[in-house]
Amino acid sequence: MKKLVILGAGTAGTTMVNKFHRVMDPMDWEITIVDHNETHFYQPGFLFIPFGVYNEEDVIKPKRDFFPKGVNVVMEIIEKIVPAENKVYLKDGTELVYDYLIIATGSDIAPEETEGLKDKLWQKCIFDFYTIEGAMKLAEFFKTWEGGKLVINITEMPIKCPVAPLEFAFLADWFFTKKGIRDKVDIHFVTPLSSAFTKEKCAEVMSDYLIEKNIKTTVDFSTGRVDNDNQKIISWDDMEVPFDCLVTVPTNKGNDCIARSGMGDELNFVPTDKYTLRSKAHENIFVIGDATDLPSSKAGSVVHFQSEVLFENLMSVIEGREMKARFDGHANCFIESGFGKALLIDFNYETEPLKGQYPVPLIGPFSLLQETRMNHFGKLMFKWTYWNLLLKGRDIPVSNEMSMKGKIQE
Predict the structure, then answer these.
(1) Of the CATH numbers 3.40.50.300, 3.20.20.140, 1.20.1260.10, 3.50.50.60, which one belongs to the domain with range 111-251?
(2) pLDDT by residue (tens digit) across 343-394?
(3) What is the model's pTM?
(4) 104: nearest Cα among 5, 13, 4
């Protein structure tokens, strides 16, 4: 019997286990999925928790609810992968042999990478919103906070969902306006990028919104350390930004098992062919989602597009055919702008976000790079799509290849 092992049961791993379970004969294949956490988190929902839009119950479900029957589920910490042996070693001593391996181990925040970040002010007036714990603590803090200097700081790139820090700034503007204390809250967006976002066209639009909403922006700020005593973030070139509340997006790193396996870069992301999603070093290993080192966004929509490509390519390899599916870097993201509105961007490796319309069957077109209520509803509707279609590996009427239909080329 041949063996497919999937490491990680987050968005990417769960999607893949459902796709392959539908087509692989259980008499010929054993499918194993490995993770160490029984709870599945809807991570896009963390953004809304500090502002009271979602609560903890909205973003968590048992992982086992999404695994198909007949799949071998192993809940244990992954110790290391040994490709030369086609084996995965788990912390409890279990050895898993594989014919094909899918690495979907994701990424996590590493606040310990920045001096002083996880010190005496951590979760007192320094918070993240990339974890359920951080988002919940920040929600409690905001309930009684009476204002001051609110700093949103990206420590370094890459990060999961690159638009999320901008969304946080926009939602903070809305939230404190609604509370009637916006004039007492000085919002400051601090980024290591040379503009508001990674893509130039989108960055121009986002910069205009930051100015319009009276959100100060500091670019090219490479965070070196946090001074807890004086409540300042300090860059490597000694720029200083004071804060009363610091909302940090810490360094993002791949899973530690990748480092223990000697398979990753300096941030534990696995070198991956940007088009085929096969490991650059091992022909029977594929990589997906946040675990990759690809120059594409680390976001749920990207996992959906990558999953179609990985599925086709791995099936081609298994059946002895040439890999023909190609991932073009396609990503689309709703960007919450506050006050019940949002923007939508759609782009890939080669094409910047453009204005125009994004056609979606049955629902209708969404406006691109334009603030609308329809886009806001699209953002909220994604939660249902996530739980009911994406995780279950079902077809979503959006092509994995970016289309130019409806886009205005400038």
Answers:
(1) 3.50.50.60
(2) 999 999 999 999 999 987 656 689 999 999 999 999 999 999 999 999 999 8
(3) 0.96
(4) 13
